[in-house]
Amino acid sequence: MATGAIALPRRTIRNRTRKRMAGVVRQLILLSLALVWLIPFIWLIITSLKPLEQVFTRPPKWIPEPILWRNYVEAMTSPGFPFLKLLGNSMFYSGLATIGTVVSCAIVAYGFARMRFVGRDFWFVVLLATMMIPGVVTMIPTYVLFRLVGWVGGYAPLIVPAFTGSAFFIFMLRQFFLSLPWELTESARVDGAGELTIFWRILLPLIRPAIMVTVVFTFLGCWNDFMGPLIYLSDNSKFPLSLGLYAFQTKYTREWNLMMAASLVVTIPMMIMFFAAQKQFIEGITITGMKM
Q1: Three-state secondary-structure class, residue 21
Q2: In this structure, which topology does domain 79-291 adopt according to CATH?
Q3: Residue of 77, 116, 142, 261 with fewest CB within 10 Å of its CB?
């Protein structure tokens, strides 16, 4: 009895030690992978602070001598890279497109999930079928349509379609609406609430994590969008940061330190947004995986 009583705690301690070691190994593996993914970003920062003659030295110099903070000043004040103007254009385009996507997708998703009407399932299948069409197929017809309307050259072709919804985000938000108890809707209707009140004041706050996922993905997609502005915008004063960075690259082809500084400046707003919404974004991603 005494031997068994002593053996059990030893086995328990052994199991706990194994679990801790396994946890340490997992953390080391994750840290190693994170470091591998961070090396290009670290090299971007280092290169942006180097003199031009140290960019391609062999072996590579990990610590610039001297550290040139003025590279950022030169990049942001360059005539070919009017940073504040480009930043304002990107914020305008990304902000309005994000608002349009969130509002339209939430309303349509609510209709498919919580309202009953003739042909609802059929039209939902049609909506999902549009996800199978490659964007390249519709690029030329869409351009011709916007040209006939007279919108080419402005932001309308980039922003107005966002107010018609996105099939993927409609599907995702619909899954969240379906997971909410129907008793909430029925109780609100008994109290005299209309559909708009139920949607805006009762159900929409409950799917906030999914809304944040939609906001972050849409904003980042518009912020990094290169093809859309390239096709529809011809005035340099309307270029977003993505096109402005390309124009800067063509003008300063060999000044890699200034190009890296400009590239880092372009990524900073996205990093700020992600870290600001990190908690709800990760929660939304986690819940989305369970809902789907």
Answers
A1: helix
A2: MetI-like fold (1.10.3720)
A3: 116
Residue 159 tokens read as 């922003």
Residues 56 and 262: beta-carbon distance below 8 Å: no
User: What's the pLDDT tens digit per position in 19-73?
Assistant: 888 888 999 998 999 888 888 899 999 999 999 888 888 888 888 888 889 999 8
Could you read off the pLDDT of 142-153 as tens digits, one per residue? 999 999 999 999
Q: Which residue has the tokens 């197929």?
A: 137
User: Helix axis angle, 208-223 relative to 83-114, nearest 10°?
Assistant: 140
Cα–Cα nearest to 265, from 232, 242, 235: 242
Burial 27-54 (b: 16+ CB within 10 A, else e): eeeeeeeeeeeeeeeeeeebbbbbeeeb
Indicate the DSSP class of residue 61. Answer: P
CA distance 152 to 145: 9
C-beta separation of 201 from 269 below 8 A: no
- The tokens of 34 are what? 């994170």
Rounded to whole angstroms, the Cα distance separating 252 from 244 reads 12
Report the alpha-carbon distance of residue 292 to residue 276 in Å, rounded. Answer: 26
Distance, in Å, from the CA atom of 92 to the CA atom of 211, rounded to the nearest integer, reads: 20
CB of 173 closer than 8 Å to CB of 245? no
- Domains of the chain: which residue ranges? 2-72, 79-291
Divide the 292 residues of the chain into consecutive groups of 10 and give the mean pLDDT of each group. 54 80 89 89 91 86 87 85 90 95 95 91 93 89 94 94 93 91 88 88 89 91 93 90 85 81 88 78 59 53
Helix 2-48 crosses helix 256-276 at what angle (to 10 degrees)? 140
Cα gap 86→244, rounded to integer Å = 7
